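hey
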């Protein structure tokens, strides 16, 4: 029962933070991009990071609420996902020197999330 309550709190906090991020991102794109280069434009373009900080806060609070076993499993999965992400992004860096198109740093986060998801699925499949 406690685990369900913890997950429910986490999902509420996480999705609220993602919604705030999406609103700030939409506003930032709409209003800041057309502006001339200035400190105001830079600040407005960075505004979505406040929502992202709330996402980080939700994750940190979730990690603090879960028990030691869940925390260990989560952090192991994140470590594996980080290693996979490092290998993939580093490898692609070599491919860029061979003429592959340059990728934005924005691609690293989706690779990390996908690696984390695949890691969790693989661990569940292996343990069955």
């Amino acid at each position: 029962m406690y685990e369900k309550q913890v997950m429910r709190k986490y999902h509420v906090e996480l999705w609220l933070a993602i919604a705030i991020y999406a609103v700030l991102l939409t506003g930032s794109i709409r209003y800041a991009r057309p502006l001339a280069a200035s400190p105001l434009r830079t600040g407005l373009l960075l505004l979505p990071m406040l929502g992202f900080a709330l996402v980080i806060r939700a994750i940190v609070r979730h990690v603090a609420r879960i028990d030691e076993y869940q925390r260990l499993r989560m952090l192991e999965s994140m470590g594996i996902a980080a290693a996979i992400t490092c290998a993939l992004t580093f490898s692609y860096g070599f491919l860029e020197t061979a003429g592959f198109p340059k990728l934005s740093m924005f691609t690293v986060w989706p690779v990390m999330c996908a690696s984390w998801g695949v890691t969790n699925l693989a661990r569940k499949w292996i343990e069955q």
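Residues 12 and 58 are 9 Å apart (CA to CA). The mean pLDDT is 94.
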